[in-house]
Amino acid sequence: MRRSAFLAAFTAFGIAASAPAFAQGGQPGGQMTLQAYAGIFRDNYTEVVVNPFTARSGTQVQYFDGGTSAQMLGRLRAQRADPQTDVVIMDVTTAAVACAEGLVERIDASVLPVIGELGPMAREAGGACGPAVTYDHLVMVYDTRAVQPAPTRWAAMWDPAQRGRVAVSAPPNIQGLALTAILAKAAGGDWRNINAAMPMLRELAPNVQTFTPNPDGYTLILNDQVRFATGWNARAQLYHDQSQGRIGVVLPEEGTAFQINTINVVANAKNRAQALAFVAHALSAEAQKAFTERMFYGPTNPNAQVSPAALNRTALAPQFRERIVGVDWEEMVRLRDQWNQRWRREVIAASSR
Amino acid sequence: MSAALLLLPAVLILAAGFLYPVALLGRISLNRTSDIGAMEPDLTLATFEKVVGDDFTWELAWNTATLAAGSALAATALALPVVLLIRAAPPRWRGLLSLMAIAPLLVSGTARIVGWLAILGDQGLINAMLEGLGLTSEPVRLINNWTGVRIGLTESLMPYACLVLIAGLGRLDPRLEEAAATLGATRTKTFLRVTLPLAAPALLAAFLLTFVLGVSAFITPRLMGGGRVFVVATEIFDLALETVDWPAAAALAMLLLGALAVALVLRTALMRSARA
User: Fold this and answer.
1) pLDDT tens digits, one per residue of A106-135
2) Residues A290 and A323 in one domain
3) Among B20, B56, B236, B244, which would you mutate to test the A interface (most chain A Cβ atoms within 10 Å of its Cβ)?
4) Cβ of A136: how many Cβ atoms within 10 Å?
5) Where would you find the membrane-spanning parts of this chain (chain B) (predicted)?
6) Which one in A168, A250, B24, B275 has a CA-CA gap of 20 to 30 Å to B144?
C-alpha cells in the first residue's frame, strides 16, 4: 500500500517536474481538446500518442469522439464562431473542405518545423493546411477458416463460389472509390479510367451480399455472414490479432490506395499554443513510430524508426510500395458524383438479389 | 390572454426544436457547393434546380412513394385482424392485448432490425429452417434487398396502424353487428357489409399515418437494403455524411418536407370527407 502510494506520488512528481522543462521549450501546460475518431483509434492513440504528450508537456488533452470525418466537419461548421476543439484529425478529402472554408488554420514548416521532416506526399496531402498524420490503405479481408488457400488478389472475390458472400462498400464511401481506382489502374493503366473498371465491377456484383456492410466487413466475417470484404489495413490488422487470425488481411497484387488522415489546428482555437505543441508531437518521429507499431497506420514522418515487423504490416514495406496506386483525392472528389451514379446504374442495378 | 400564455411554452419548444432547425436547413439549401465540396455562402436556388433537374431524384421519389404506400397498405391490412381480435376479446384482456400490439414501439428501431437480420439473413432462422426441411439448397435472399426493406418497414409501421385502429374501431357500436347477426347475416357478411364500411375511416387514417411515416423512413432502408434500396432519406444521409454536400442534402430535405406537408394536408382533407 505504502509502496503503491509512493510510486503514484513519484510518478505525479515526475510529470509535474517535467512539465516546466517542456514549457521552457516554448510549449505550455494547460489543456486542449482533440477531436478524432472513436473506438479502437481513440484507445490506441490515447495510449501511445496523447498520454506521452501529456506526461511530457503537462498539457491535459481532452479527447472528443468525433465520429466520422463528415460529422467532425459538421461540428467545425456549427462551432465556427466559438470553436470547442483545438486539434482535429480527419480524412484528407474532408480536411480539404475544412481548409477551403477556413475552419482550420493554414500551417507550414515556418510555424511548425517538424513539417519539414515529413515526406513530400504528407506535406502535399493537406494543401495549405495541416499535413498527413497517418497513412492507411485499402485491403481485402477474408475468413481464414472458409477461404483456403490464402488469396493474394482482389480477383478472389470474383470466384462464383463466393456468390452472396462478399461485402463491398460502394461509393460514395471512399472504400468503393478506392476499389474502383485500383481496378481501373490494373485494367487500363490509369486510375481515373472508370470505363476500364466497370466491366469488372459488373461481374463482381452478383457475388455481393451488401454494398453497405453494417457495422463493418470485419464483423460480418466474424458473424459468418460473408467471407470477403473490403477494409482498411489498420483496423483489419487489429481485428486479425484480436480474432486469433480468423480475419485474414491481404494487400492484393493488383494494388491498393492510401486513405490519408491529416491533422489540423482549428481556426481560432482557444488553446492554440497547446494545439501547435500537440501537432508537433503527433508528427514527431517518436509518436509516429509508436502509433505505427501499435496500430499499423503507415508513418508520415520518414525519420520514424519503425520495427520491421510492424512496417511489414503497412503498405510502406518495401515489397508493397510498387502496389500503391497514386490516387489524387482532390481530383477524386471531382469525379465522385459521376462514379457514384455509374455504380448505382451499372453495378448495383446488376446485383439484384 | 391566459390561453395564449398557456400555449407559450409549447410554442417556444416548437420554435426552438423545429422551426429554427428547419429555417437553418432552408438557409443552408440556398448556399452553393464548390467542386471540392466546400460550402460557399450564397442566396441561390441553383441547388434546388440541380436536385429537381436530376432524373435520379425522381427515381428516388418514386421508390420512396411506392415503398411507403406498399408498406403502409400491408401494415394496415395486417393490423386489422389483430385489432379485431383485441376488440372481440373479453374486456379484461383488451388492455394487455393492446399493449402487446404496440409493444414493438418500446424497442429501438435499430434493435428490431438486428432481430430481423438474424431471422431473414442468408444464414438466418428462416433459411436454416428451409434448408433443414430440405426445401431449399441455397439461401433464399430475404435481406439486403427490397424484399427485406418491405418486410422490415411493414413490421415497424404495424404498431402505429394498430394504435389508430384500436382508437377508431373502439368507437364502433357492437350492437350494429349484433343486429346484423340477429337479422341472419353470416359472420363474413357482417364483417364485409357492416364492420368494414364502419371501419373505413379508421383504416384510411391508419394507412395515411403509416404512409407519412414510411416516406421519411431511414433506418430500415439503410440497414436492411444492403445498399440496393435508394430512397429520399438514404440519399439525404449520403449527401450529408458521405459527400458532405450539405446544400444538396438540405434542398432534398426541404423538398421532402414540402411533400410531407402536402400529404398531411391531403390526409386531413380526406379524413374530413370520410367523416362527412
Assistant:
1) 999 999 999 999 999 999 999 999 999 999
2) no
3) B244
4) 24
5) 60-84, 96-119, 194-219, 246-266
6) A250
Total domains in chain A come to: 2
Q: Is the CB of A97 less than 8 angstroms away from the CB of B228?
A: no
Residue A220 reports pLDDT greater than 50: yes
Q: Are A346 and A202 in contact (CB under 8 A)?
A: yes
Contact assignment for B123 to A164 by CB distance below 8 Å: no
B37 with A330: Cβ contact below 8 A = no
Mutate to test the interface with B, among A80, A90, A97, A338 (most CBs of B within 10 A): A97
Q: Is the pLDDT of residue B204 over 50?
A: yes
| Min Cα–Cα distance to chain B from A289, Å | 31
Nearest to A70 among B38, B121, B244 (CB): B244
The pTM of the full predicted model, rounded to 2 decimals, is: 0.87
Fold classification of B59-274 (topology level): MetI-like fold (1.10.3720)
Buried b (16+ CB within 10 A) or exposed e, B12-36: eeeeeeeeeeeeebeebbbbebeeb
Residues 6+ apart with CB under 8 A from A91: A69, A174, A259, A260, A261, A262
Band (pLDDT 50/70/90 cuts) for residue B264 is confident
CB contact under 8 A, B141 and A173: no
Q: Is the pLDDT of residue B229 over 60?
A: yes
Q: Do B141 and A93 touch (CB under 8 A)?
A: no
Tell whether A221 and A337 lie within a shared domain.
yes
Domain ranges of chain B: 59-274
Q: What range defines the domain where residue A44 resides?
A: 2-135+259-311
ω before B159 within 30° of 0 (cis)?
A: no
